[in-house]
Amino acid sequence: MNDTLTHEQLNADRASVLGFWVYLMTDLVLFASLFATFMVLRDNTYGGVSGKDIFDLSFALKETIILLMGSFLSGIALVLAAQDKIAQTLRWIAAAGFFGAWFITLEISEFASLITDGHGPDASAFLSSYFTLVGTHGLHVTIGLVWLVALFVAIQRRGLTRPMLRKMALLTIFWHFLDIVWIFIFTIVYLFGAL
Amino acid sequence: MLAVGALFAGFITFGGYWGYLWREWFTSLDPKRIGIMYIVLSLVMLVRGTADAGLMRLQQVFAVGNSSGILEPEHFQQIFSAHGTIMIFFVAMGIMFGLINVALPLLIGSRDVAFPFLNSMSFWLFAAGAALINTSLILGDFSRAGWLAYPPLSELAYSPTSGVDYWIWSLQISGIGSLLSGVNFLTTIATMRAKGMNYMRMPMFAWTVAGSMALVVFAFPILTATLSLLALDRTLGMHFFTADGGGNMMMYVNLIWAWGHPEVYILVLPAFGIFSEIVPVFSKKKLFGYTSMVWSVVAISFFSFIVWLHHFFTMGAGGDVNAFFGIMTGVIAIPTGVKIFNWLFTMYRGSIRFPSPMWWFLGFVGLFTIGGITGVMLSQPAADFQLHNSLFLVAHFHNMIVSGVLFGYFAGLTYWFPKMFGFTLDEKWGVRAFWLWFWGFILAFMPLYLLGFMGATRRLDHYDASLGWQPLFIVAAIGAVVIVLGFLAQVIQLFVSIRDRELRRVGNDPWDGRTLEWSVSSPAPEYGFRALPIVSSRDEFWARKHGAPIHDEAGEIVMPKNSWLGIAIAACAYFGGFAIIWHIWWLLALALIALLIIVIERTFDEDTERIITV
Questions:
Q1: Domain range for residue B271?
Q2: Which of residues 230-259 of B touch A (CB under 8 A)?
Q3: Taking a C-beta distance cutoff of 8 angstroms, is the pair B336, B300 a contact?
C-alpha cells in the first residue's frame, strides 16, 4: 500500500490500536461483572421458570453459527480491503452486516417470545440477569452494525483511505471480541443452563 | 449558591466574555486548558461539599436530648449522601484529572495526550455529571441512601423519589468520562513518551498515573455495570438487588466495593506521585529508591484489587474468607510504608527548602501515617466487628482522603501553578492555609476516633444527652470551622497572587526543577515543546542544567483543531440522564439519536489537525 508513511501517522495508528485494545479490556470487565451477576443469580428463579425450562440449545447453536459467520465474513472483507479491492470489500461488508442483523433478529424474537409467555426480565432475578447479560451483548452487536453501516457509506464515498482501513480493522477486532463473549454466553448461560 | 452563579453568569455576559471562553477554553483540546477547567469546576464543587460537611457538624452539635438540631432527618440524609458523592466524584477525581492533564504530557516529553478529542469529551461528561447532581437542588431531591446507595434502601420500594436516580445518572455519566480518561492516559503513557524515555526513566508521577489509570481501566467498568443494574431495578422493575423476586443485595455490595476499593488507590496514587516529584526538587537530591518506588506502585495497584471484602467483614462470609482479606489489607501497608521511608530518605542530608508544597508533604507524612495505622487496625476482622459503621471508620477514611489525597493535590496545585499561569502563588498565605488545614483536621477528626470508640455510629442525626458525646462533637465542629478558615486562606492566597501577578511572574524554572516540564516556558505553550526532547536520564532537565548534551528533535508541530462536539456529546448525556430520571422517553430518544449522529460525524471527520509554526 502506502510506503511513505510518516512517523506521526504510524504513531497515531499505534496509539489508536492500543487504545482500542485497552477499551476492549474495559468492556471485558463490564461483561465479567454481568457474568458474575448471572452466576450468582441463576438459581434465584423465585418460583418461576429456570434455564432448563426456557433454553433451546439448537436455537442457541443456530444463533452462534450465524454470529460467527458474520465475524468470518468481516475478516474476509478486511483481507480484500488490504488488497485495495473496493467493490468486493463493500460486498463482503454487506454480507457480514446481513448475518449480524439476522443474529439480532433471532435474539429479539427469542426475547419477545419469552416476554409474551410471561417470563420477562421483571419476573425473577434469574430472568433479570439473563436478559441483561444477553441483551448487553446484543446491544454491542447492534452498535457494531451501526458502525458497519457508517463505514460502508464512508468507504463508498471516500474509498479505502488509510484511516478507513484502520477503522475497519478496529471494527473486525470488535466483532471478534463479541464472538468470544458470545462463546462464553453460549457455554455458561445456554449449555450449563439447559443441562 | 444560585445567586453567586447568576452573578457570575451576569459578569461574563456583560463583560462579553462568552465568545472568548467558548473559543479559547470550552472548545479547546489543549490538555493544559482542559486540566485547568477540571480544577476550577472541582474547586466550585469543593465549596458545595464543604458546606454540606459544615451542616453535618452543626447538626451533630445541636441534635442532642430534646433538640432535633437544625435539620430534618430527611434533609440530613440527603446532605451526607451528597457530601460523600460530591467529594469523591466531583472534587477528588476532578482535581486528579486536572493535575494529570496539566502535568503528565509535559513530564513525559509529549505535546499532547493520545486522544485529544476524547480528553475534551471526558471533561465535559464530568461537567455534565456535576450539572446533573446540582440539578437535584432545584428539581426533585437527592438520594438519601448514603454515598454508595446500598440496596434494598436504594431500591424503588424504599426510595420512591427521584433522588437515587439523580445519584445513579450523575455518577454514570461522569464515571464513563473517567473510564475514557483512563483509557486515554494509559495509552498516552504507553505510546507518547519522549524518545529515550524507557519505563525506568519515567518520572515517578507518570508511574503513579500509570498505576492509577490501570486501576481506572479495571475498576470503572464494574461501576458502570453496577449502576446500570441498579437503574434497571429501579426503572424497568428488574430484580437484581431487590428484597423480593430473588434479588441479592449482597451482590451489589460486593460489586460496588470491587470498584470502590480500587477507587481509593486511584485517588491516592497520583498524590504519591506528586510528593515523589516535590520532595526531590525541594531537597535538591534525586528520589531515593526509584526502583522500589516503582515496584511499590505496582504492588499497591495489584493488592488494591484483592481487599474489597474488608468493607463488609460483617457480611458473614466466614472466618477463612475474612482472614484472607484481612491479611491482604494489612499487606498493603508495606509498599505504602516503603514509599514513606523513601521520601524521608530523599530528604535525609538534602539541602531542604520549605515552600508550602513541602509543608503539605510534611503534614501528609504525620497525618497519613496515623490514618494508615488506624487502617491496619480496621483490617483485623475481629476489631472491625466492633469498629465498623462507627465514627472511627469515618475518621479513618477522612484521615486517608483529606491528609493523603487532598494535601497531595494542594501541594501539586501550588507546585504546578506557575506552569499553568506563569506566576507563583503567594507563599505567606499558602503556609497559613496549610497550618489551618492541619490543625483543623486534627481538631475535626481526632474526636471522631474517640467517639467511634465510645460507640457513636456514622450518619447519626440525633443522640441522647446522657451519652456525654456533645463536648467532642463541639470540638469537631470547631475543627470544621478552622478547616473552613484554611479554605478561606486559600481563596485569599489566590486573590493576592492574582492581584500581584506582575510581581510574581517567573521564568521557566521557578523551583530549580528536575523534570522536563520546567524546561518550557511558564505558562506552558499550547504545543508544550518546540522541539521534542530526546531523553537520556531519569532527571533529564536536571542533567541538562548540569552539562548533559541536549538532543532535541525539531519538526512540524501538529496540534488538534478545536472542537465543540465534546460539549455536544456531554449535553446529550445530560439530557439523556435527565430524561431517564423523570421518565421522559421522547427526550431520551432524541438525546440518543443526537449522540449517534455526533459520534459518527466526529469519527469520520478527517480534518481535525492543524500545523503550528513558531
A1: 2-612
A2: 232-233, 236-240, 242, 244-248, 251, 255, 258
A3: yes
Distant-in-sequence, close-in-space partners of B570: CB < 8 Å, separation ≥ 6 = B121, B124, B125, B127, B128, B173
Nearest to B165 by CA among B534, B563, B580: B580
Query: Which stretches of B285-355 are DSSP H helices?
Result: 290-303, 319-347
DSSP letters of B336-380?
HHHHHHHHHHHHTTS-----HHHHHHHHHHHHHHHHHHHHHHHTS
Q: Is A135 on the interface with B (CB under 8 A)?
A: no
Query: Which of A189, A195, A59 has its CA nearest to residue A133?
Result: A189
Sequence-ordered list of residues with C-beta below 8 angstroms from that of A91, at least 6 positions apart, any chain: none
Give, rounded to a whole angstrom, the gap between the first and last alpha carbons of chain A.
Answer: 51
CATH code of the domain covering residue A190 = 1.20.120.80
Instruction: State whether A44 and B115 contact (CB < 8 Å).
Output: no
Grid coordinates standing for B262?
A: 480500587
- Helix B249-283 to helix B290-303 angle (10° resolution) is 170
CATH number, domain at B325? 1.20.210.10
The reported pTM is 0.95
| A124 touches B at CB < 8 Å | yes
Q: Is the dihedral of CA B440, B444, B445, B447 positive or negative?
A: positive
B490: Cβ–Cβ under 8 A, 6 or more apart, which residues?
A: B410, B429, B430, B433
Return the amino acid letter for B359.
W
Contact list in A for residue B222 (CB cut-off 8 A) is: 29-30, 33
Number of domains in chain A: 1
CB B598 within 8 A of CB B569: yes
What is the tens place of the pLDDT at every residue in B128-186? 999 999 999 889 899 999 999 999 999 999 999 999 999 999 999 999 999 999 999 99
Residues 155-174 of B with CB under 8 A from A: none
CA distance B292 to B304: 18
Tell me how far CA of residue B443 lies from CA of B197, B389, B477, B561, in angstroms.
Answer: 45, 21, 8, 50
Location of C-alpha cell 432448563: A52
Contact (CB<8Å) B240/A125: yes
How far apart, in whole angstroms, are the C-alpha atoms of residue A129 and residue A120?
A: 11
Tally of domains within chain B: 1
- Out of B183, B238, B604, closest to residue A122 by CB: B238
Q: What is the mean pLDDT of chain B?
A: 94
- pLDDT, residue B517, reads 95
ipTM rounded to 2 decimals: 0.94
Counted across chains A and B, CB pairs separated by less than 8 A come out at 116
Alpha helical stretches, state H, B379-453? 381-387, 391-400, 407-421, 427-453
Determine whether the interchain pair A44/B600 forms a contact, defined as Cβ–Cβ distance below 8 Å: no
Q: Is the confidence at residue A45, as pLDDT, over 80?
A: yes
Cell of B300: 499497591
Of A36, A45, A161, the CB nearest to B246: A45
- DSSP-assigned states of every residue in B229-241: HHHHHHHH---SS
Q: If residue B543 lies in a helix (H) or strand (E), which one and from where to where? A: helix B540-545
Residues 6+ apart with CB under 8 A from A16: A166, A170, B114, B115
pLDDT computed for residue B5 by the predictor: 72
Host domain of residue A10 = 2-194
Per the listing, cell 433522588 goes with B163
* b/e B431-448 (16+ beta carbons within 10 angstroms → b): bbbbebbbbbbbbbbbbb
C-alpha cell at B67: 433538640
Average confidence score pLDDT of chain A: 92
DSSP string computed for B551-612: EEE---EEEEPP-SHHHHHHHHHHHHHHHHHTT-HHHHHHHHHHHHHHHHHHHT----EEEE
In the 8-state DSSP scheme, what is residue B532? E
